[in-house]
Amino acid sequence: MDAVIRYLRSNRWARAGLSGLSVVLLLSAVGLLGYPFYTNLYQGRVQSRLDREIASPEHKELYRTAELKEGDALTRIKIPKLGVDVVVVEGTGASALRAGAGHYPDTPLPCEDGNVAIAGHRTTYGKPFANVDRLKTGDTIILQTPIGVCTYEVNKAPFIVNPTNRSVVANTPGQHLLTLTTCHPKGSAKERLIISATLTKGASTRT
Predict the structure, then answer these.
(1) Which stretches does DSSP call E strand in 54-190?
(2) In terms of domains, do 22 and 92 share one?
(3) In 10 A of CB 8, how many CB atoms?
(4) Range of the domain at 117
(5) Are 174 and 115 in contact (CB under 8 A)?
(6) 194 in a structural domain
């Protein structure tokens, strides 16, 4: 240690390099800590807009005729056990998911026949799915659309799949399912955590 100190005292460039490295590490730490805060703030503003959008009569008609575009408000998801209450948008692209949660566009609309699939963030953009791993069989998930409400019940313990496994969001005509997907473990996209639930109350009335 003494040798290092003597070297730094005698070498101006080494001292400058060490100072520069310290600044880089400090800025990196600030960035890592500040990024989730920024995304949560951004998501809050997006949710305020979506709250107004999903309640409008014009939006109700767009939903009824299935004319929603990516990023449009689709349904409100409520998970009472976890205190989750956010508006889900159409689409799962990076831009759409800044709302916190998005609907896989190639799956049925909420409450309809088949496998309705929704992806959500776990550590950023409001992190609505942060604690879905705590859900147990029988816990309820409510979807409130512009034209009605339906309730699902978790039908099995949360499970993990490879991120390339698309079978969990495949359509299942004749069944009434809801699938939630999110990254696992927290802060990593290495795997996907899956919640499966079955419709127990309510159905689509788009006609």
Answers:
(1) 73-79, 84-90, 101-103, 114-120, 140-145, 148-154, 159-161, 176-184
(2) no
(3) 13
(4) 42-201
(5) no
(6) yes
Integer Cα distance of 17 and 122 in angstroms: 38
Q: How many domains does the chain have?
A: 2
- At 120, list the tokens: 């959500």
Q: Are 109 and 66 in contact (CB under 8 A)?
A: yes
The per-residue pLDDT for range 151-160, each reduced to its tens digit, is 999 999 999 9
Cα Rg of the chain, angstroms: 22
Neighbours of 155 (CB within 10 A): 14
- CA–CA separation, 71 vs 100, rounded Å? 11
Predicted TM-score (pTM) of the model is 0.81
- CA dist., res. 186 & res. 52, Å (int): 31
Name the stretches of the chain with pLDDT < 50. Answer: 8, 15, 18, 21-33
Domain CATH code at residue 166: 2.40.260.10
19 lies in the same domain as 110: no
Query: Does residue 66 lie in a domain region?
Result: yes
Assigned token pair, 124: 């950023």
Does residue 103 belong to any structural domain of this protein? yes
33-49 pLDDT, tens per residue? Answer: 456 777 888 898 999 99
56/28 same-domain check: no
Position 206 in a domain: no
Are both 95 and 20 inside the same structural domain? no
Which tokens sit at 112? 């309809």
pLDDT at 189: 86
Q: Look at residue 117 in the predicted model and tell me its pLDDT.
A: 97
